[in-house]
Amino acid sequence: MLVEAQDISVAIGGRPVLDSETLSCRPGTMTALVGPSGSGKTTLLHCLGLLLPVDRGRITIDGDVVTDYGAAARRRFWRDHAAFVLQDYGLMDEESVAFNITMRASPLGRRVLGDRERLAQALGRTGLAGREEEPASHLSGGEKQRLALARAIYKQARILFVDEPTASLDAANRTMVIDLFTDFAASGRTVIISTHDSEIVDACESRHEVASGRPAERLVNNQ
Ligand SMILES: Nc1ncnc2c1ncn2[C@@H]1O[C@H](COP(=O)(O)OP(=O)(O)OP(=O)(O)O)[C@@H](O)[C@H]1O
Asked: What UniProt keywords apply to this chain's record, in alphabetical order (predicted)?
């Protein structure tokens, strides 16, 4: 999906946080949102994922003006097209790893339903094979992060929004996660990542520097 933001601005509590950000994230590519701490990377990511409204400007996805969407259209976008790996991971701690990935269970909640093959693939790709029956609360910070990624893989979403994905990962898992994003993009999906990690930035086809108050167009294409 092609995500385009034009001159978007956001103020929180009366304070400008984003000022006239303009960028374009193409399908089949990874885009890094970069900038110093507090520059607004997470805020921009949340706006592009329709989690936060903008005060000015507009965002289109495949040409649709999504900044006009009401609550029902936003929910449809999240359900049908988007996957999020955010800083709090959005997991259900008391539920099993498998349930957190598939989000489906039998009526009594004892048996996880869903596509077994896709589940096995998501577990395998994130190094969580064999952990499916454990409650998410038993996982370490880095494992929770990989679980959130496993859910995105299972969902086969067309667009992936990721916030600081390598913050709690060791070197081996960091490489695995970067490979996962690269594969996501190679299969035609759009990947948007807020990050400080230069290894991720190097793996991205485009980089957008978020810096409130500076001139609008700062998109740099590495290609
Ligand atoms: N809910 C909120 N209430 C008040 N201020 C907020 C809120 N969310 C973000 N901000 C402010 O907006 C600015 C940008 O925050 P944001 O989290 O987007 O930055 P960031 O570039 O992602 O930072 P970091 O790299 O440290 O994660 C910060 O000054 C922050 O304090």
From this structure: ATP-binding, Nucleotide-binding
